[in-house]
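pls design
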């Protein structure tokens, strides 16, 4: 019964949010390409603006569909070096080829495809090793890939981690930590992670991450929100560690709720998109692109962290994210599963 009422609370908050999201985004261009052009123009008019888009190196996970596809496309079309980090590299190469055909000989797109399977932590480590061999700066890491298994029983990956918790939190956290040296080489690095309003009503059930729980105490629907909350708490803690240790305000971690979006992560949502209430994947990518490219986000940072919503404005986060003890528990458990030492960040920063 407790799980039932928790589900009702989450569903209600999502429905209310969904009903008003188009109203709250009337000020935004409908096209993510137009939004990126506006941001680029605005940044260029700011004497403190960062590098040109053509100078950026960006990794986007899950770039073969949905929000990730449109995010990767717009940055690639703007001239950035975009790395499509995907499980299906054949599909990614086909998409990259189509984008190149679109521009013909007008410009050369700097697109790269690299294999990354978030269901395998060894795949994440391999990706990190290959990337770090280049010893190049990474300007943007966009953790977009995710899964949603609302009605399924508790299932574990081959790494022994509940599937949603691994793909939505553990794997992107490991990837972020492995790429942190590369990020710190950039002049103004950002980690952008696609979050969800579902995190607001979520709780942290550490025991269910990599241990079997009783069937009536597990909810795939609630675990999705929990995975998004855990990753938000991880990002907030990481930003705090980096900024406090180095006093470097250039490093930013931003979680963003893209709104109710019709993507293949949830077939029912994809169908519901036909009602007009839900965003298309292109519309859903706008807030992600804003957080990745806008200089205005610096005004909302607290110790290097910010949370944005689909209207490209800062929004509230779960009270648990302000609980330092709870964040510490999430951090330690994440490091334990990822097999990374708790003091890894401090050792890394001490070498820089």
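designed seq:
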């Amino acid at each position: 019964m407790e799980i039932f009422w928790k589900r009702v609370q989450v569903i209600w908050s999502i429905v209310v949010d969904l009903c008003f999201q188009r109203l709250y985004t009337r000020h935004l261009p409908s096209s993510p390409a137009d939004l990126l052009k506006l941001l680029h123009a605005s940044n260029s008019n700011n004497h403190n603006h960062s590098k040109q888009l053509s100078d950026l190196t960006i990794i986007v996970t899950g770039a073969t569909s949905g929000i990730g596809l449109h995010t990767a496309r717009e940055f690639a079309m703007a001239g950035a070096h975009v790395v499509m980090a995907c499980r299906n590299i054949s599909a990614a190469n086909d998409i990259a080829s189509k984008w190149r055909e679109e521009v013909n000989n007008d410009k050369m797109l700097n697109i790269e495809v690299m294999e990354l399977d978030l269901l395998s932590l060894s795949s994440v480590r391999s990706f990190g090793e290959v990337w770090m061999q280049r010893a190049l700066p990474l300007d943007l890491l966009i953790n977009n890939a995710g899964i949603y298994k609302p009605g399924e029983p508790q299932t574990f990956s081959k790494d022994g981690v509940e599937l949603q918790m691994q793909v939505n939190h553990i794997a992107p956290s490991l990837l972020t930590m492995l790429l942190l040296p590369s990020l710190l080489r950039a002049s103004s690095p950002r980690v952008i992670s696609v979050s969800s309003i579902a995190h607001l009503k979520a709780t942290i059930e550490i025991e269910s991450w990599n241990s079997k729980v009783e069937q009536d105490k597990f909810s795939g629907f609630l675990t999705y929100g929990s995975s998004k909350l855990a990753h938000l708490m991880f990002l907030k803690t990481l930003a705090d560690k980096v900024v406090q240790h180095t006093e470097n305000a250039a490093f930013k971690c931003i979680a963003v709720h893209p709104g109710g979006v019709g993507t293949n992560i949830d077939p029912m949502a994809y169908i519901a998109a036909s009602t007009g209430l839900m965003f298309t994947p292109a519309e859903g990518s706008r807030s992600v692109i804003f957080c990745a490219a806008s200089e205005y986000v610096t005004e909302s940072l607290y110790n290097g962290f910010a949370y944005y919503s689909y209207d490209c404005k800062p929004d509230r986060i779960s009270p648990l994210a302000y609980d330092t003890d709870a964040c510490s528990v999430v951090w330690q458990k994440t490091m334990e599963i990822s097999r990374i030492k708790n003091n890894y960040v401090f050792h890394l920063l001490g070498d820089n």
